[in-house]
Design brief:
Blueprint: H1 2-32, H2 40-58, H3 61-85, H4 90-113, H5 135-138, H6 144-152, H7 157-175, H8 177-187, H9 189-194, H10 199-226, H11 237-247, H12 252-272, E1 276-277, E2 281-282, H13 285-289, H14 291-303
Antiparallel strand pairs: 1-2
Helix pairs in contact: 1-7, 1-10, 1-11, 1-12, 2-3, 2-4, 2-10, 2-11, 3-4, 3-10, 7-8, 8-10, 11-12, 11-14, 12-14
Protein name: ABC transporter permease
GO cellular component, one term: plasma membrane
Keywords: Cell membrane, Membrane, Transmembrane, Transmembrane helix
Length: 321
């Protein structure tokens, strides 16, 4: 029984993490360029609704992913226009997107589907798990069958995309020309401008990439995890992703490890529901559900002072004359 629970926790961790990984890596691009992306939560919700609505209407999950991507990128460009071109307050812009999408997605879902602010079940329009070749042949082999069939295999395409993104993002940020310009704009935009780098263009491109990556978080919520859209179903995933970004000190590998940590606590939360623990007995459901958020507060309290953010983050760039 203990082995089964441990296996379930590991698999649940891998399946919980991609929502945070996509959003955190999206925030990494935005914030490395110097733009605070507190609007991750709103973009996740918007892309989740668009993905679910279009996938249900067309009965094609790939169209849903494209729709979610379009909506998320559009919001990212609005946020970029306010923050970069208009030199507006980046925190206010992000919070405005979060509040607007929390209400608008519910209203649109109610208007189009009349099901209390949710979409119908997607059923065959969901992204299903990938069964690797030879899974049946090794299924009964201890350890190997579980690793191959349920941990490495048996996952959605988006899970593989999330983990494959890590080396790609690391290379882009640290070993590409764009990555060098990205980090320069986030650390010293005036020096980057003096070197001939267009700070505004780099930041716009970073926000575009952030919009694309964030859309996968929303699509994963509806097309993989739940199979429908529900009001505020992101449940703070955008803020948890920002916490993972702080935990990872704005570095790809450490950020992903932070996402896996939150995924682990989410998996433990599921395992604890309805279980009688030694001494303390059965924990209240509300306390169990609060575990990831308690961990968030602890992480922020312990690491915020030690984390070193990009020096120009949150500061509008005004070109020197």
């Amino acid at each position: 029984m203990e082995d089964f629970q441990l296996a379930s926790i590991i698999v649940s961790t891998v399946r919980n993490a991609p929502v945070l990984m996509f959003a955190a890596l999206a925030g990494l691009f935005a914030e490395r360029s110097g733009v605070v992306d507190i609007g991750l939560e709103g973009k996740i919700l918007a892309s989740a609704f668009a993905s679910a609505a279009v996938a249900y209407t067309t009965q094609n999950p790939w169209y849903g992913i494209l729709a979610g991507m379009g909506v998320s990128v559009a919001l990212a460009m609005v946020q970029a226009f306010v923050s970069i071109t208009q030199k507006g307050n980046q925190l206010v812009a992000g919070i405005a997107i979060n509040i607007a999408m929390s209400g608008l997605t519910f209203v649109l879902a109610q208007f189009f589907f009349q099901q209390g602010g949710r979409t119908p079940d997607l059923r065959n329009a969901r992204l299903f798990d990938v069964v690797l070749p030879g899974t049946a042949a090794v299924e009964h082999i201890p350890v190997i069958g579980w690793l191959y069939g349920h941990l490495i295999g048996g996952q959605s395409v988006l899970v593989y995309v999330a983990f494959l993104l890590l080396p790609v993002v690391h290379w882009v940020v640290y070993h590409s020309r764009f990555g060098l310009r990205l980090r320069a704009c986030g650390e010293n935009p005036h020096a980057a401008d003096a070197a001939g780098v267009s700070v505004e263009r780099t930041r716009y491109l970073a926000m575009f990439v952030a919009g694309v990556l964030c859309s996968f978080s929303g699509a994963y919520l509806t097309l993989v995890q739940s199979g429908f859209f529900l009001r505020d179903m992101s449940a703070g995933a955008g803020y948890l992703a920002l916490t993972a970004l702080v935990f990872g000190n704005w570095r790809p590998l450490h950020t992903v490890l932070g996402c896996l940590m939150f995924g682990l606590f989410g998996a433990i939360q599921i395992q604890l529901e309805g279980v009688d623990l030694p001494v303390v007995g059965r924990l209240p459901g509300s306390l169990i559900q609060a575990i990831p958020y308690i961990v968030t507060v602890v992480v922020l309290a312990g690491l915020m002072a030690k984390s070193v953010a990009p020096k120009a983050i949150g500061k509008p760039f005004v070109k020197s004359r």
